[in-house]
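ok trying this again, last paste got cut off
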Amino acid sequence: MLIPQTKNIGLPLMNLMRFKGLPILQQLHIEEQLLRTSSENWCIVNDGTNDPTVVMGVLGKPAELLEIESVLDDQVPVIRRFTGGGTVIVDHGTVFVTFICNKEAVPNLQPYPRPIMSWSSSLYGKVFQGIGDFHLRENDYVFGNHKFGGNAQSITKNRWIHHTSFLWDFNVQNMSYLKHPKRAPAYRSARSHLDFICRMKDYMPRSTFMDKTVEATETQFSLRPIQLEAIRTCLEAEFCPSSRFLTNEELEAAAVALQS
């Protein structure tokens, strides 16, 4: 079997997997298993997902974050993922980028949320150099004061994951499923979802963003392209991921509790 060639010999090795339209729950399952069972570094780029899906952080409360009646009426799937962070609704207009690393993979990086966030912001600074007014505001990637990238993390004893959902485009109707969160970044200034977010497509071509992200990653890692089929046998069949769909019964119970 031919071994994929890598560039930038001397840099830490990172496996690169690229998908188009991988269902978000499947992506989360792969990510959690790689975080908890692999000892290698990974970058995952997923160009969109399938049907509109709400994805909540591990501690998210549906009654506080979702317009539950609308979600149930329109049969919008709701996932509770294994990482922290806020609530998003994702679809074919969302681009996902994930980094899963050993703690020593990035020199001098302290394995805590804020340093990891700052590192990722520096990497994406290369991607968006000269485009818009890109910067990190609190835990969000923004152009000016409009959010286009939401981040979530999980940190284990020896490894960490940082994944981002980028709003390449969005359906205005989908935003109506999300409530204004009780805990919102100060820079949001009580703005509605539509006044708070922006579309990446107004700043950069979609393929250019993904290519530049890979190029920026190559400045710090030696990338090795990997196909999912090549690692299926390595993924533990008995691994039980924690990201899952919430049932209608759980959502209905949350709605009832809110009214009581």
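PB: full thing came through this time. Residues 6 and 215 are 13 Å apart (CA to CA).
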